[in-house]
Design a protein that fits this description.
The chain is α/β, with parallel strands linked by helices. The protein is 32% helix and 16% strand. It has a 9-stranded mixed β-sheet, with helices on both faces. Strands 5-6 form a two-stranded antiparallel sheet. A two-stranded antiparallel ribbon has the order 8-11. It is globular, with a radius of gyration of 46 Å. The chain starts with a helix and ends in an 8-residue tail after the last strand. 26% of the residues are buried.
């Protein structure tokens, strides 16, 4: 009988398991004939006999096949709990016959246990580390979410501020709509023609720059900016304020109609504002003006200060009381106030003509564009914001450009234009035959320039002395034909006196 009882701890091939336990991970098999043999430690009536504990089985016998007793189970300890110090772990009943205990397994998993579970002493440590990691991840996610919300709030505030700086000129849009039938039809739809007007109003903060004629405004500088449809070039054409032109009948601020007249160009802005100036330009050039911008003195100054000044070179010192400007000769960087005096000075520089002043304005604007592109201002939000803030504060536009999104789209289209393809020139003109203090267009040169821009065709610019030498060389030829022309050659690109944003003012 004793021999039968000791055999009930399990077959010799698997001494670590009782007859009723099967290893986990194996497929459950139907009990064979041996398992039902009543001689393997269990009477035929199913009542277990007493078993000697020293033989490796708990007292009370083995359970029936397929049953699992609490003593044989491997209880899962609670997370974070550790055995009391000095306490011996309870021996595994399944290993009692082999003399092994849970603490002597050297970390090897039990044959019937979870292969991925280590010793009990390691389990609480893993739980603590995992809990700390989860807390760290939660705080990191909360911090990142907070930063995103703050950034979004600041970005929205900046957008709203810049967007609110812009003034919309609705009156000009309404008047232009009334004269829609007489306006030119766009030839190239993707090209853009923008009229830039520099107002010399002496009202408000601008009073220190001259006499305040009741707050009247005059167009001190007018530039027609043509952006090519492929956005690979930009051409800025200055229109002299003293140019004699035909000005159509316009509506004044007090809702009166002016008469059509032949007079100097800047009278149009003084009489009928932006709408009258646009209609005058369209009648003179045949070019449809898509948008317009009016910038006053303060806006120009603040933009120069926002890019930390613009570098120029002076061949001679300047001392101009009217322009509030006193500068030594040589290379130097102008701040906003000095830059404004430089582009406005006329009487003490050169021959004192408006022609030379326009050339200085063009060169300075080219240096400003070059400064913005070379220093990455257009691609750096922290540097671009002050420029946009300065520009929008003193900017008045048509409804098509009165939002920050519209201006951004415009700047984005220009930021990839090479600086050598950002060209500045003055419309071909000469002293007016009836008054040397006024200008008139030179034909057919002016007409050819307007035709090139209208049809979105390229133009070229070179310094005035180079253009003069080239024309003298052509006139000296007996056949009167340029070198690059012939029966099968294409029409040469018209060339005019001017400069580009890539020109270095200190190397001229």
């Amino acid at each position: 009988m004793d021999a039968d009882v000791t055999d009930s701890a399990g077959p010799p091939s698997d001494p670590d398991h009782s007859a009723g336990d099967k290893p986990q991970g194996r497929s459950q098999e139907e009990p064979g004939p041996e398992d039902a043999n009543p001689e393997k430690g269990t009477p035929k009536d199913g009542t277990p006999e007493d078993v000697n504990p020293e033989d490796g089985a708990p007292e009370g016998g083995t359970p029936a096949a397929g049953e699992e007793t609490p003593a044989a189970a491997d209880p899962e300890p609670e997370a974070g709990s550790e055995p009391e110090p000095g306490a011996e772990p309870e021996p595994d009943p399944a290993k009692a016959g082999s003399g092994e205990s849970a603490g002597e397994s050297d970390g090897a998993p039990e044959a019937g246990g979870d292969a991925g579970v280590r010793t009990w002493a390691d389990r609480p440590k893993d739980g603590i580390v995992a809990a700390r990691k989860r807390r760290w991840l939660r705080w990191t996610a909360l911090g990142a979410s907070f930063l995103v919300l703050v950034a979004a709030g600041v970005g929205w505030w900046m957008y709203q501020k810049l967007d609110g700086n812009i003034t919309t000129d609705t009156s000009a849009a309404a008047e232009l709509k009334a004269y829609e039938k007489e306006r030119p039809t766009p030839v190239v739809m993707d090209a853009q023609n923008i009229l830039l007007i520099g107002s010399d109003s002496r009202a408000g903060d601008n009073r220190k720059y001259g006499r305040d004629d009741g707050g009247s405004q005059r167009s001190d500088t007018t530039i027609l900016l043509h952006l090519a449809a492929d956005r690979k070039s930009a051409t800025a054409v200055s229109l002299p304020r003293d140019l004699m032109v035909e000005i159509p009948s316009c509506r004044t601020e007090d809702d009166k109609e002016t008469r059509e007249q032949f007079t100097q160009f800047n009278t149009a802005f003084e009489l009928g504002g932006t709408a009258c100036t646009i209609r005058t330009v369209e009648r003179m050039t045949g070019i449809r003006v898509d948008h317009h911008m009016v910038v006053d003195f303060n806006g120009f100054k603040d933009m120069v200060d926002a890019v930390d000044g613009v570098e120029i070179c002076l061949k001679e010192p300047i001392d101009d009381k009217d322009a509030h400007l006193e500068l030594p000769a040589g290379r130097q960087t102008l701040n906003g106030e000095e830059a404004l005096g430089y582009v406005r000075a006329r009487k003490t520089l050169g021959d004192g003509s408006d022609t030379e002043r326009m050339e200085r304005q063009q060169q300075f604007l080219g240096a400003l564009v070059n400064k913005m592109q070379s220093n990455g201002v257009l691609l750096n939000p922290t540097r671009l914001y002050p420029v946009l803030d300065a520009a929008t504060k003193s900017l008045t536009t048509d409804p098509g450009l009165d939002s920050l999104r519209d201006l951004y789209d415009l700047v984005r289209g220009m930021r990839n234009v090479p600086t050598e393809q950002v060209q500045f020139l003055t419309v071909p003109r000469q002293p007016y035959r009836n008054n040397a203090n006024r200008d008139e267009l030179v034909e057919p040169d002016a007409g050819d320039l307007f035709k090139q821009l209208r049809e979105d065709r390229p133009v070229a610019v070179v310094p005035a002395d180079e253009l003069k030498e080239a024309r003298q060389g052509q006139e000296g030829k007996q056949d009167g034909k340029p070198d690059d022309t012939g029966s099968g050659s294409p029409t040469p690109t018209p060339t005019y006196s001017g400069s580009s944003a890539a020109d270095d003012l200190c190397k001229q």
